[in-house]
Amino acid sequence: MEKNKFNIIVFSGDMDKVLAAFILATTAASMGMEVKMFFTFWGLNVLRKKKLTSGKNILQKMMNFLNKGGSDRLPLSKFNMMGMGPAMMKIMMKQSKVPSIDEFVKMSKKMGIKMVACTTTFSFMGFDKDDFVEELDSFSGAATYLSDAIEGKISYFI
After folding, report:
1. Considering Cα of 73, then 135, then 37, then 138, what sign does the dihedral take?
2. Helices 15-30 and 101-110 meet at what angle, rounded to 10?
């Protein structure tokens, strides 16, 4: 019997939205579904390593300096309060035994969830493959995502 497929586009780089994406992805995987997460635009920050700069030209380097990568640097969509909101959220998550985003990335890899980075965003932001964490499975474009979505039972855009 073929597994049900669940596809998520992670467009947002906001901590709360990314957390929701990983909660849904790991829940679906634990229910036996085949899950693929497609990270694009600000969502790529989840899978980027902490680096001061990356990019091939001055505009890309400036943008990537302002838009720092790293799962522990993600802002909240509301009540960010210059970083106080995410710090408070991390304490609350720890108190409630909710995994951090970094722990969710590692757990997702162990559960067989495929994590894919968008090649278009990757290209125009000037990233290199070594800018990303080792849990990233592959790079592909929107056409591949759409093919997966056609085969999937559920698709979300977060």
Report:
1. positive
2. 20
- What angle (nearest 5°) sits at the alpha carbon of residue 57, between those of residues 135 and 51? 35
Across the chain, which has 158 residues, the per-10-residue mean pLDDT values are 92 96 98 97 92 82 82 89 90 95 97 97 89 95 94 93
* pTM (2 d.p.): 0.91
Report the distance separating Cα 141 and Cα 36, nearest Å. 13
Q: How far apart are CA 142 and CA 15, in angstroms?
A: 23
Altogether, the residues listed in the chain come to a count of 158
What is the C-alpha to C-alpha distance for residues 43 and 74, in angstroms, rounded to an integer?
10
- Torsion sign (Cα): 155, 156, 157, 158: negative
**Which stretches within the chain are classed as H helix?**
15-30, 58-66, 84-95, 101-110, 119-124, 142-151
